[in-house]
Design brief:
With 135 residues, the chain is an alpha+beta fold. The protein contains five helices and four strands.
């Protein structure tokens, strides 16, 4: 975020607002950088937080977090988060669950997360060779 702020001259709040809109409209996609199963990497996951709780409290509990979408009724936030491993994720989610105003917290380690960058490259290359679409 800091790099975008410096490169554009916009405030962090403005950069965050634009990024959130781009993600919501699916004009921007986030691909996690992960190592192979034997290497260390970053665990990128989505979290649905139901309940009225300030975003600042969620950032303190979860660390690196990006707002993907937000609902007013019922109050809910859908977040993109980053962790070191499953133990780290479990600890952070437990911390969020204890915040006042939280009704529930759901974590999704969904199918879009690809563990090996080599696998991702191979799948893309296969699609290109076949002349198929990547979507």
């Amino acid at each position: 975020m800091q790099e975008l702020t410096e490169a554009t001259g916009l405030s962090p709040k403005t950069v965050r607002k634009h990024l959130e809109r781009l993600l919501r409209e699916e004009l921007l996609f986030i691909t996690p950088r992960l190592g192979s199963l034997g290497d260390s990497g970053e665990l990128v996951y989505t979290t649905a937080v139901f309940g009225a709780v300030p975003m600042a409290d969620l950032r303190r509990a979860l660390g690196d977090v990006f707002l993907i979408n937000e609902l007013q009724e019922p109050p809910a936030r859908f977040l993109l988060c980053r962790g070191i491993d499953l133990g780290d994720v479990t600890t952070r989610i437990a911390r969020v669950g204890k915040l006042p105003g939280i009704a529930s917290v759901n974590v999704s380690l969904n199918r879009e997360i690809i563990v090996s960058p080599d696998l991702l490259r191979r799948l893309v290359q296969e699609r290109i060779v076949k002349g198929g679409s990547l979507s």
